[in-house]
User: Fold these one by one.
Assistant:
Number 1:
Amino acid sequence: MWVLASKTLSSVTFPFLYNPIPNRHSSSSKLKLNSSVKFEYETERGLDFETGESFFRHESATGRDLGVLAAALYKKSKARLRILDGLCGCGIRSLRYLVEAEADFVLANDANDDCRDVICRNLSKVPRGSDDEPREFFDLIDIDSFGSDSSFLRPAINALRFDGLLYLTSTDGYSSGGHRPHHSLAAYGAYVRPLPYSNEIGLRMLIGGAVREASVLGLRVVPLFSYYSYHGPVFRVMLRVNRGKLSDNSHYSFVSYCHQCGNSQTFSWDELGQISCSCGNSKSIVISGPLWTGPLHDASYLTEMLNLAKEWGWASGDTETALEKLLKQMVDESDPRLPFGYIKLDEVASRAKVNSPPLRTMMDAIQKEGYAVSRSHIISNAIKTNCPMAECIRIAKELQPRAYAEVL
């Protein structure tokens, strides 16, 4: 597995073993370096580190928070944690996995040899253990890649222990938006057309690519959480990998959107010749896929993450933190009654020819009609609901006088 990791992910490897550090959430001391050399430090969750010339974004801290929480839960349940941090940049994820998740071993890799010194300085905060080459499978593999390079998927799955975690990344907003369908087909095996919920499609496209690669190896993947961030954009998914083949009722299928009525549907492979829309205008339908059309999150797993975040002080009972709000929204999105995609209230208002109603008012009205509904963590002015578009339009029209009064 060492050869696999070093050959496919990097030409530079930095293995470190974790030794416990007291007070995991306190700020770590700065490195004692030659006083004639000046180093600027960043701080994340109390840990000081350098970025050097590596690519680094403060906005990606939430994705790192989620990865650390998942890693810590794995360590708690399995009593072990071996991590491969592929494309590690300056090494901040590796440092956080070692200190906060108490990883037993982290292999930090980056193909850019210029990052060697800054990675070594950042990880020197942690006492270094044996330099023996890793000969075991990894429990968690974190690949924070750029664009839509999916060539690492199969090697990463091969290097992962059964029941292990695979944390994947895509930053290809053009493909998820349907602007490069042949590119998405080559990278993820999905021909993607423009859809109004393109940012969710980006997550489903990435999961679908992993589903396809895992199935070739006789394995199956299940999403534990899926996270979208507007900067980049960045699509991150945490998957659990186990033995098992795709079932006949798997969630690896096709999605349709009707431009005339605004409804979306899923179609299995054996339904491809029967695609139609209830509005009767089949010419206005666009099809994308195959994609992952099942749940984006596991509610019970997210609840464990939220509880751990509270235990660590990352979620406050007095003032709701951004991470706490995100995890709660993801739990709400996990309602099994909710279909794929989201509905922008601006689209509902445009079709209804009314002003857009307040989001909370619209959600309350939909719930009173007996439908399931939640906010979308992906976009602020959008909802996930099993309420058909025609019903959403009717409700928006009925709410118009009330919505106007609330504005006044």
Note: The two ends are 64 Å apart (CA to CA).
Number 2:
Amino acid sequence: MLFNLRSFFQIKKLTWNNKHLLRHFWRGPPAQMNVSLKGRDLLTLQNYTADELKHLLWMASDLKHRIKHKGEYLPLMQGKALAMIFEKRSTRTRLSAETGFALLGGHPSFLTTQDIHLGTNESLTDTARVLSSMTNAILARVYKHNDLDLMTKEATIPVINGLSDLYHPLQILADYLTLQEHYGGLNGLTITWIGDGNNVLHSIMTSAAKLGMHLHIATPKGFEPDLRIMKITEQYSKKYGTKLLLTTDPLEAANGANVLVTDTWISMGQEEEKERRLKAFQGYQITMQTVKSAAPNWTFLHCLPRKPEEVDDEVFYSPRSLVFQEAENRKWTIMAVMVSLLTDYSPQLQKPTF
């Protein structure tokens, strides 16, 4: 009894002297203790650890649950402004960023090269410095990834990659949230990419293994992913103990796949290569014949916009297709990125199993 009473007074003293330690004693460390992304840039998922990626997905789940399902208003961006630079046209990236930032109480400003002096009368360096003085973050959708690297060097606020020729990290976060919701976890899933070795694939390659996912890649000869990124992917596969397959045979890549993914074969700026590309990608259309060798619980993803030569209607509009859920999740994941980079907010929803 004396021991218990003494313990009581020790804890009471602890309450006054170190409330933070007491919270750790009773409930474990607060969520932000291990992962803090405030002030960071998001140019590529390669720069984010497994725990940081999980934190972003947890944040997205939390915001979606509280705002969409519980009807809460979370003005986490109130008083903040977002500069949105778009060199390329967009539907999902623009709409998700613009509506998402506004839903959080912030003010987004959509800027194209026709709206501002970028690249004509004003250098990227000067633009980055000006935007840093007037806004809290920059989201840029550009042609050259090197422009993002320069922007982060000159800007004093977080820079978010809305798409570049090398990476599309916001898309892949949305893909992972969609798979997390559908399968209840990511670890152990096999993702199969059938198509061009492009920026979307690069973002999968630099992140999937960190979350315990195996990766199969099928690309035609001459359209393989970037060699530097391929080497990084091989290192990740060894480090995290995942399987990696690179082939030119779509059916081989589809074998045992839980998730089949493709994208446009002709990206913006590649229109002159259309005839050559269509010829090279013959046999790469995803059909019900393709999925016969996939896992029984297979699903399909496409970042949109979609063309019939990439995937037929039977797969694209099937109950196994998650493309429209995937499109909506662009909004929740981009909101999670903005909240994580600009605030100290911690998710309230119980952390999902990854």
Note: The chain is about 40% helix and 10% strand.
